[in-house]
Amino acid sequence: MIDLHCHLLPGVDDGAETLAESLEMARTAVADGTVQLACTPHIYPGLYENDGPSIMAAVDRLQKALDEADINLRLLTGADVQLAPDMVEGLKTGRIPTLAGTRYFLFEPPHHVAPPRMPDMIFRLVAEGYVPVITHPERLTWIEDHYDTVCDAFDGGAWIQLTAGSVTGYFGRRAQYWSERMLDEGRVHLIASDGHNMRRRRPVLSAARDAVAMRLGEAAALDMVRGRPEGILLDRSPEDMPALAGVQQRAERASGWRRWFGR
After folding, report:
1. Is the separation of the CB atoms in 36 and 233 below 8 Å?
2. Rounded to an integer, what distance in angstroms lies between the CA atom of residue 182 and that of residue 22?
3. pLDDT per residue over 208-233, tens digit each?
C-alpha cells in the first residue's frame, strides 16, 4: 500500500514529536503493509511555518535514519496545506510542495468554518494544472450544513481523501457516516492514514482497506490505497486513473443493464 498523508516528520507540527517516535511509526506502517509513505506536515500560516525546501530536507534526514535502522519504507515529500489566498503562487514557487513533485497536493479546508469561496479556489487551481486532494472532509464540523461545498469541489475537479480511522469508526459514528455516504456516492479517490503518533493516530491502512472491500469490492479498495496513489506518483492525469466506484453507481449501472436487456 501507499500512504499519501502522514505526519511522520519529527518536531515540525502536531505529528511525531521525536525521531524515536517517527521510527516507531514507520515500523508500524511497514508491518501494516505500507511500502511508500508521504511525509505531509501542516503548512498553516501563523502556526506551522513549514515550506517546500525545509520539508524536503527533513524528509532526506528521516529517510537516512530509516535506512540506518533497516526500516524498508520509501519516503515521499508533500504537505497538508491550509486554504490561503496565495496558494497558487506558493505551489508555483515551490514554497508549497506537491505530492512527490507531481500535479497533486493535499488541500486542508478549515475545520470549523465552511470557506465561502472554496469552489472558486478549486477552479483556479485546476485551471493552473493542479489537482487538489481535499483531506478528511468527513471530519469537518460543517459538513452537515455545507455538504454541497464538498460536492461542488468534487465536481470541479478536486479529489477526495478519507482518513482510514473514519472509515473504520475510530473517529466516531458521525465521521463514519459521512465516509460511508461518500463511498456509496462514488466520491472517494483515496484513503490515507493521516497518522500523527503512536498513541491514538497510528499510520495504519489495512483495516480501512478491508472495510471498503466489504462495501465496494476488493478492486475498489485497492484502487484507493495502491492504484490511484501509484498513478499520482507517476503524475498521471485524472482521466487516466482507475474509475471511481460506489454502491449507488453500481446499482445505477445494474439498473441500466436490466432496462437494456429487459430483465
Report:
1. yes
2. 31
3. 999 999 999 999 999 999 999 999 99
What is the C-alpha separation between 131 and 237, in angstroms, rounded?
9
With a pLDDT cut of 70, the percent of the chain lying above it is: 94
* 63 vs 72: CA distance, rounded Å: 10
Opening angle at CA 190, ends 253 and 215, nearest 5:
50
Asked whether 51 and 93 are in contact (CB, 8 A), the reply is: no
CATH of the domain at 154: 3.20.20.140
**Number of compact structural domains in the chain:** 1
The packing angle between helices 247-261 and 173-184, to 10°, is 30
Cα→Cα distances 260→48, 175, 247, 253, Å: 56, 38, 20, 11
Up-side HSE of residue 91: CA atoms within 13 Å toward CB? Answer: 29
Is the model's pLDDT at 254 over the cut of 90?
A: no
Contact between residue 198 and residue 184 where contact means Cβ atoms under 8 Å apart: no
Domain interval for residue 239: 2-261
